[in-house]
Specification:
The protein is of the alpha/beta class. It folds into three domains: about 30-115 and about 325-360, Periplasmic binding protein-like II (D-Maltodextrin-Binding Protein, domain 2, 3-Layer(aba) Sandwich); about 135-240, Helix Hairpins, CATH 1.10.287; about 245-325, D-Maltodextrin-Binding Protein, domain 2 (3-Layer(aba) Sandwich). About 50% of the residues lie in helices and about 20% in strands. The chain has helices at about 1-30, 55-70, 80-90, 105, 135-140, 145-170, 180-195, 205-240, 260-270, 280-290, 300-305, 335-350, 350-360; strands at about 35-40, 50, 55, 70-75, 95, 110, 115-125, 255-260, 275, 295-300, 315-325, 330. A hairpin with a 2-residue loop joins strand 2 (about 50) and strand 3 (about 55). Helix 6 packs across helix 7 (about 180-195) and helix 6 runs antiparallel to helix 8 (about 205-240).
């Protein structure tokens, strides 16, 4: 009996020891380290230097995640997204955060967090102040967009011309010398066109004809003002945008972007002449200096630049295309991914994420 009790006691002690050891091992495996190595790269407004320290949307979001996880992390800068990903893959960083697009190709080599930002690609071209060439004006006047103005002008000439011809043809001193419809109507049309251009050299003699003439002169002033404003606006838009108005205009153009980015891959697929730079700031310089016809990159990044350093120098054209999401990148099977996801979801639920988002993007155009 004593042997049985001793065996039971020994078995219970062994089970208890195994449970404690297993829980301790599981806890040590799942618990994040106290200091993480965080790879990043400078790309305003997500990450950039200010007063000797890194700040930006991604930096503040990581700080909030780290606080939620009750751990610290050291930010290590890399020059390109390719270098950042290589550091994460080689184990030189525990994770990476900046403006990193989640793609199917990258998901075969890395693990990603829940999406932390929704974005897409957009096109930026430089403003081109200066006079408009005669060729550009002629192309506009011969374009399909100009046809409604042609039709409206003909209508505005024919209607008053018929009224004047009808009222003047039987007047003894009327300005229409030929009483027949042809060629009398041509004389009336010439008068209407001359009045429209404020160059009429004679006026109707009949009372009804003069009433029509006064009404037509006021109408001409309004029409000429509207016509001038519309043509000027069309020429200005054409001048600013040049030949690139959307993604369909990119093939064959010289387009700048960053090395190893999803935009570079997209541009090569579209048969554009791609020039890749380590930093997006170098792509901006290529655009402003005329080395590139456009810059294609992440929409929020281009929007931030066009509203700040590039204000008055560049403009965004066309819609946002190839929509994508940014995420935090990890090596495959990283023990930190679950904890970061939990912290990120908690911030989205308690309003912490929204406060950071509003700080950096709600006031943008």
């Amino acid at each position: 009996m004593r042997n049985i009790d001793a065996l039971r006691l020994s078995a219970a002690a062994a089970i208890l020891f195994a449970l404690v050891l297993g829980a301790s091992w599981k806890k040590s495996e799942a618990a994040p380290a106290k200091q993480l190595r965080v790879a990043t790269r400078e790309i305003p407004p997500f990450v950039y230097q200010e007063n000797g320290r890194l700040t930006g949307f991604s930096v503040e979001l990581w700080q909030a995640i780290a606080e939620e996880m009750r751990l610290g992390g050291t930010l290590v800068e890399h020059s390109t997204v390719k270098d950042l990903l290589e550091a994460v893959k080689a184990g030189k960083a525990d994770l990476g955060i900046s403006a990193i697009s989640i793609t199917a190709e990258r998901s075969t080599e890395f693990d990603f967090s829940q999406p932390m930002f929704d974005a897409g690609l957009q096109i930026m071209v430089r403003d081109q102040p200066g006079g408009t060439s005669a060729g550009e004006t002629l192309r506009l006047l011969l374009s399909f967009a100009f046809l409604p103005f042609v039709g409206l002008t003909l209508l505005f000439i024919l209607v008053p011309a018929h009224f004047v011809w009808w009222s003047e043809r039987h007047h003894p001193r009327g300005m229409i010398e030929n009483h027949a419809y042809f060629p009398g109507i041509f004389e009336a049309c010439w008068w209407a066109a001359s009045t429209l251009a404020t160059q009429a050299d004679q006026m109707p003699r009949s009372a009804f004809g003069r009433a029509i003439a006064v009404l037509w002169m006021f109408t001409s002033v309004v029409f000429v003002a509207y016509f001038t404003a519309s043509v000027t606006s069309s020429l200005t838009v054409q001048q600013l945008q040049g030949d690139i108005k959307g993604p369909e205009d990119l093939p064959g153009k010289q387009v700048a972007t960053t090395t190893g980015s999803t935009s570079a891959l997209y541009l090569r697929q579209q048969n554009a002449n791609v020039t890749e730079f380590p930093k997006i700031e170098q792509a901006y310089e290529a655009l402003l200096s005329g080395q590139a016809d456009a810059v294609v990159f992440d929409s929020p990044v281009l929007l931030y630049y066009s509203a700040h350093q590039g204000k008055g120098k560049v403009t965004l054209v066309g819609p946002i295309f190839r929509r994508e999401s940014y995420g935090i990148v990890f090596p495959q099977n990283s023990p930190y991914r679950l904890h970061v996801n939990n912290a990120l979801l908690t911030l989205k639920e308690n309003g912490g994420y929204q406060r950071i988002y509003d700080k950096w993007f709600s006031s943008r155009p």
